[in-house]
């Protein structure tokens, strides 16, 4: 290093060439004396360290407080109120965490712990008119705390919206009226799936579905992806370029949905059904469009085979659609 420093004229440059940090070089030149039995940092007797006797007293008070159903803060404050200060509040919490026997520590009750786990809903559709999903979403207004409610029923196989309405509030009888209209126009499905909102679990709707021999299923608590089709449809609506964001009146909201639903069903090229429209998949007319697409794709492949690694295939809608259903599963509704 001396020769390299003399050559470069700078120790900093020499260390940079050698790839050695300056602090490392200084330590190597002036190493500390080795300690035969070094003391770990946590065991060192620094001035601010709480004595072992005081730690034992604090631990005993905390354990006694736990037995009486009191928190660490309660025991700390009670001791302080008696004119005794053994350590800071945060130190009490650290000592509590180090107590080996935590069995006496009060357990804070939670609402989730008392719930019986709900079975995962598994629904499968092999064609339109078998499984419907529905939900309600907020349509914002300019006023704080006020939103219009958009009701929507979607056929999960074709993604077609088979029922909708916009109201000022969520109501079971409004949902019943929407389903009655959908049944008259599209027939009755085998299953209707929804989340666990009040309108979805209402007795009036349950009676209607039971009357038409329709089985209803619901999301598990705190599992938002149990209802993916309705959530996806609402996202499509709210992320369109012409979505207004807020609606001044109920009539404005209804007018927007009256234009959106026909567009979604008959014009929107849905990525989940191979870029066909929900109406095409619902009525089966997608097969003719698929033939046209495939002919054009194969012709393009013949003209430019160098642009492909293998012969391309034209995507088609899935023959089986489900909620919480994997392709390798054999479970049925």
Automatic annotation (TrEMBL):
InterPro entries: Integrase_cat-core, RNaseH-like_sf, RNaseH_sf, Transposase_IS3/IS150/IS904
Any Pfam family hit: rve
SUPFAM superfamilies: Ribonuclease H-like
Domain Integrase catalytic: 124-286
PANTHER family per UniProt: TRANSPOSASE INSF FOR INSERTION SEQUENCE IS3B-RELATED (PTHR46889), TRANSPOSASE INSO FOR INSERTION SEQUENCE ELEMENT IS911B-RELATED (PTHR46889:SF4)
Name recorded for this polypeptide: Transposase
């Amino acid at each position: 290093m001396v020769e390299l420093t003399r050559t470069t004229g700078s120790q900093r440059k020499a260390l940079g060439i050698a790839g050695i940090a300056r602090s490392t070089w200084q330590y190597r030149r002036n190493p500390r004396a080795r300690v035969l039995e070094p003391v770990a940092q946590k065991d060192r007797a620094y001035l601010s360290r709480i004595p072992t006797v005081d730690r034992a007293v604090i631990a005993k008070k905390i354990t006694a407080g736990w037995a009486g159903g009191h928190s660490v803060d309660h025991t700390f404050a009670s001791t302080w109120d008696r004119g005794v200060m053994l350590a800071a509040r945060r130190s009490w919490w650290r000592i509590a965490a180090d107590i080996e026997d935590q069995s006496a520590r009060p357990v804070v009750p939670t609402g989730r712990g008392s719930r019986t786990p709900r079975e995962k809903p598994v629904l499968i559709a092999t064609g339109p008119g078998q499984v419907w999903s529905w939900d309600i979403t907020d349509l914002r207004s300019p006023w704080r705390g006020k939103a219009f409610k958009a009701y929507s029923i979607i056929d999960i196989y074709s993604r077609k919206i088979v029922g909708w309405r916009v109201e000022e509030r969520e109501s079971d009888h409004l949902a019943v009226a929407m389903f009655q209209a959908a049944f008259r126009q599209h027939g009755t499905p085998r299953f209707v799936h929804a989340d666990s909102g009040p309108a979805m679990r209402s007795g009036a709707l349950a009676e209607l579905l039971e009357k038409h021999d329709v089985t209803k299923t619901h999301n598990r608590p705190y599992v938002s992806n149990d209802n993916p089709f309705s959530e996806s449809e609402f996202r499509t609506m709210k992320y369109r370029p012409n979505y207004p964001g807020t609606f001044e009146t109920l009539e404005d909201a209804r007018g927007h949905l009256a234009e959106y639903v026909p567009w979604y069903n008959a014009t929107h090229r849905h990525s989940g059904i191979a870029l066909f429209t929900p109406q095409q998949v619902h009525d089966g007319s997608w097969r003719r469009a698929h033939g046209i697409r495939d002919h054009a794709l194969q012709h393009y492949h013949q003209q430019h085979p160098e642009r492909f690694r293998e012969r391309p295939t034209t995507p088609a809608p899935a023959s089986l659609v489900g909620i919480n259903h994997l392709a390798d599963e054999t479970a049925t509704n």
